[in-house]
Design a protein that fits this description.
- Helix 7 links the parallel strand 7 and strand 8.
- The longest helix has 21 residues.
- This protein has 33 helices and 32 strands.
- By secondary structure, the chain is an alpha/beta fold.
- Helix 3 crosses helix 7.
- It has an 8-stranded mixed beta barrel with strand order 23-24-26-27-28-29-30-31, surrounded by 5 helices. The chain has a 5-stranded antiparallel sheet with strand order 14-13-17-16-15, with helices on both faces. The protein has a 5-stranded mixed sheet with strand order 19-20-18-21-22, with helices on both faces.
- The chain has 5 domains: 117 residues, CBS-domain (Roll); 124 residues, CBS-domain (Roll), CATH 3.10.580; 112 residues, PAS domain (Beta-Lactamase, 2-Layer Sandwich), CATH 3.30.450; 160 residues, 2-Layer Sandwich (Alpha-Beta Plaits), CATH 3.30.70.270; 252 residues, EAL domain (TIM Barrel, Alpha-Beta Barrel).
């Protein structure tokens, strides 16, 4: 009996991932990530293979921060290895080991047939007998390189390239390890963005094996998890090294493989000559880490190996003549063994997991494979059972399963497990005609705890809250942590809203009792949103979304309370999502417009400038009011992009009008805090003015009072840079914020704008008149100009003029005008041109 020997044509991947040499390396990395492969073949227009671009090349590119648009044809550095399609797998193993290859093109009749990788070589060796014998600890190799979680990814890439490593370990702050491989570097290059720290970019947890494990165990684990590296741990649990496919190839002793193949050939010949005996390779049988039992056709044990005694505690003499029932634990039902024998009799093989009992009485879990040995006539002669103790692996799997379904900080169910429980509860309620409630709990001002007391105090507070919520649970209730400061509570088979409201109040009380948590005196409250099944949804996702919506309504209502979901909340949430989606495309679709409202001198009515006002003309909704979409732009970070468009458009309009001989005066543009903090706003403004040939006096920047008072992020420095550039700065909506006059007088602002809320009733006297009078007095004492907005009546104009306010805007003079109408107004007035 003989076995066919595999060739490279049998294992090569014929689905080549190819690209032209002009393709940017970032796009090449993206294609490799999408195809989950470690190399891409670079071919010219005639189909000639120029080389391979690999993950190692990606490491070099990312380390050097080369231009991501560099053509891949200029970045090839990997030696192109070519192997014939009919090369046998043993010869390929030797070629990969001696030439230290990771990839090779397989050629047939002068054309590339496919590609074979180190992973393909290891997965298709089929040398289980040898891999069982070879121990990981006997392999040569350097100790693992482990960098701290806070390390710079560039340092990691430099170390990998300098030491020729395909992976390195990451020591996590909370204990344990993560891993960074060349595949991760490829992903960073594809995204053209490095993570801030190594901890953010690594994958965790790092899967590993003890150092005394066999190469077969290592290969099985690599294949099971579809990974290319394992950790090797010592007896004390410490990380010794990282084991990859290349280490397995290097660990194969070629001479011994030939010896083993010859022994197997002789064994097959002996099986043909003597159908009543079973010859095994003594070296493999005696030294394997797996236990082996050989029985006759009736299941009576005829032979066991030393690993059997080590695992079970029974000696060879104690086992011979017995049946494997000697190890029964009673954990499997009789039906289990009946099914096992049916498979053996029908298929001649069975494999699975069994819980057995050692001689000392301890239970252990084993992975068991049983094979029937038949003669030429098909009659069963023997059964060979091979088993390994997987107790530790099962415990590790159970731990991983727990971590995958529970929050690491509080040990509460996490989002994944909670959604499963919620969906199951919804299905049970549907069948039983019952009601259930979902409470979405979000802590109020939790960010303040982290910012003032530190994240450790915040974590301790979350742990205390989790325990407090658990202590309040009634039978049939489940509490979970979704992440951050968000918790959820599931109530099944509830009676009505009154009962749910009582439970919500109990949870609020439980949270507020934690005023002394983490060793600090603090007051913590929560906001709770409630959705009910089936009224507010019939599936887990819908119930969670609606509870979240209700929670935000509870926060808007003043916090430290709860709110039931109502359909109008969902309508508003959907409307906001629709607006945000449409706003993302508004710039590209040229739906935004800039309108202008004139500013006039109160005494003469002369036009002295205008405020640029953003308008959005939606193709379906028409003109969308600014108060509906500006807050969305602020929250979604679109405001910086939109603000840049406003600035560019205002400069272009000013240039066009001046070239036409018109005098628009100084154009005022509103600038948000996000825009000032985004990039280098001062340089962007300077470039915009230069592009349109405008001096800095052509523009006025209106900044809200709260932004002016924010000294965080270098805001004050930015304002002084703008002053140095010569731009006129004014404070918008003055009087609605919290300005400190002593602070205000040190800022480089030149004007104040009185908010329209103080203008509406000022002509009738009262508080508004007093406030407006005070603002004008403050501005004059500080040497600042004053502009009043929202002036609609002649009495308001006279009052402001009498108090010393020189400039205003509002419907009394003109409503906001589209750019074309404002230009017509300029032509109509035809005032002498003023550059400043």
């Amino acid at each position: 009996m003989s076995y066919p020997i595999q060739t490279l044509a049998d294992i090569a991947s014929c689905d080549l991932l190819c690209c032209p040499p002009s393709l940017p390396i970032r796009e090449a990395a993206s294609r490799m990530m999408a195809a989950a492969c470690s190399s891409i073949v670079v071919r010219d227009e005639l189909g000639h293979v120029l080389g391979l671009w690999t993950e190692s090349d990606a490491l070099k590119a990312s380390l050097g921060r080369r231009d991501p648009e560099l053509p891949v044809g200029q970045a090839i550095s990997a030696q192109l290895a070519s192997l014939p399609h009919d090369m046998t797998l043993p010869d390929a193993v030797e070629a990969f080991r001696n030439r230290q290859l990771r990839h090779a093109l397989v050629w047939k009749h002068g054309q590339p047939l496919g590609i074979v990788t180190l992973t393909d070589i290891v997965r298709n060796q089929g040398l289980e007998s040898f891999l069982i014998v070879k121990r990981i600890r006997d392999l040569p190799g350097p100790p693992a390189l482990a960098l701290p979680e806070s390390a710079d990814p560039r340092e990691a890439m430099a170390q990998m390239r300098e030491r020729g490593l395909s992976a390195l370990a990451v020591a996590l702050d909370e204990g344990g390890h993560g891993i960074v491989t060349q595949r991760d570097v490829l992903r960073w290059l594809a995204a053209d963005q490095l993570p801030a720290t190594l901890g953010e970019g690594c994958r965790r947890p790092l899967i590993g094996v003890p150092e005394f494990s066999s190469l077969l165990q290592a290969r099985r684990l690599l294949q099971q998890h579809n990974i290319r590296h394992l950790a090797v741990f010592g007896d004390d649990g410490g990380l010794l090294r990282l084991l990859g496919f290349d280490d397995i190839v290097q660990g194969i002793e070629h001479e011994y493989l030939h010896e083993l193949n010859e022994a197997l050939r002789l064994r097959d010949q002996a099986l043909q000559q003597s159908r009543h005996s079973l010859l095994l390779a003594d070296k493999v049988f005696e030294s394997t880490m797996e236990g082996i039992i050989i029985t006759d056709r009736d299941g009576v044990i005829q032979s066991v190996n030393p690993a059997f005694a080590r695992i079970t505690g029974y000696s060879r003499e104690e086992a011979l003549g017995k049946t494997p029932a000697l190890l029964k634990s009673g954990k499997q039902q009789p039906e289990f063994y009946q099914q096992l024998w049916r498979s053996l009799l029908r298929d001649g093989r069975w494999q699975g997991e069994v819980v057995n009992r050692r001689k000392g009485g301890l239970l252990y879990t084993e992975h068991l494979s049983i094979t029937a040995i038949r003669d030429a006539a098909g009659d069963c002669l023997h059964y060979v059972a091979v088993f390994s103790d997987i107790t530790q692996r099962k415990q590790a799997e159970e731990r991983l399963h727990f971590l995958a379904n529970h929050d690491a900080l509080t040990s509460l169910p996490n989002r994944t497990l909670f959604l499963e429980k919620l969906q199951g509860a919804a299905e049970r309620a549907e069948r039983g005609g019952q009601r259930l409630a979902l409470l979405f709990i979000d802590l109020d001002r939790f960010k303040l705890v982290n910012d003032t007391l530190g994240h450790y105090a915040g974590d301790q507070l979350l742990i205390h809250i989790a325990r407090q919520l658990q202590s309040c649970l009634l039978p049939g209730e489940t509490v979970a942590r979704l992440g951050g400061d968000e918790f959820t509570l599931l109530l099944e088979d509830v009676g009505g809203e009154a009962q749910v409201a009582a439970r919500a109040q109990a949870m609020l009380d439980a949270v507020t009792e934690l005023s002394g948590a983490a060793g600090q005196q603090m007051f913590i409250s929560a906001s709770i949103g409630i959705s009910m099944f089936p009224l507010d949804g019939r599936d887990a996702d819908t119930l969670l979304v609606h509870a979240d919506t209700a929670m935000y309504r509870a926060k808007e209502g003043g916090k430290n309370g709860f709110q039931f979901y109502t359909p109008d909340m969902n309508a508003r949430a959907l409307e906001r999502l629709r607006l945000e989606y449409s706003l993302h495309r508004a710039l590209a679709q040229q739906e935004l417009e800039l309108w202008y409202q004139p500013k006039v001198a109160l005494d003469s009515g002369a036009l002295i400038g205008a405020e640029a006002l953003l308008r959005w003309r939606h193709p379906e909704m028409g003109l969308v009011p600014p108060d509906r979409f500006i807050p969305i732009a602020e929250e979604s970070a679109l405001i910086a992009q939109i603000g840049a468009w406003v600035l560019e458009t205002a400069c272009a309009d000013a240039r066009r009008w001046r070239d036409a001989g018109l005098a628009p005066g100084r154009l005022a543009v509103n600038v948000s805090g996000r825009q000032l903090k985004h990039g280098d706003f001062v340089a962007e403004l300077e470039h915009a003015l230069a592009r349109h040939g405008l001096d800095s006096g052509a523009l006025e920047l209106e900044i809200t009072e709260s932004v002016v008072m924010d000294d965080a992020g270098g805001m004050v420095d930015t304002l002084f840079r703008l002053q140095k550039l010569g731009v006129y700065l004014s404070i918008d909506d003055f009087g609605t914020g919290y300005s400190s006059l002593s602070y205000l007088k040190r800022l480089p602002v030149r004007g104040l704008k009185i908010d329209r809320s103080f203008i509406d009733d000022l002509h009738a006297g009262g508080d508004d008149a007093a406030i407006a009078r005070a603002i004008i007095s403050i501005a004059r004492s500080l040497g600042l100009d004053v502009v009043a907005e929202g002036v609609e009546q002649e009495a308001q104009r006279r009052f402001l003029l009498e108090q010393g306010c020189d400039c205003a805007q509002g419907y009394l003079f003109s409503k906001p005008l589209p750019a074309g109408q404002f230009e017509a107004l300029l032509v109509e007035r035809a005032v002498p041109r003023q550059e400043g």
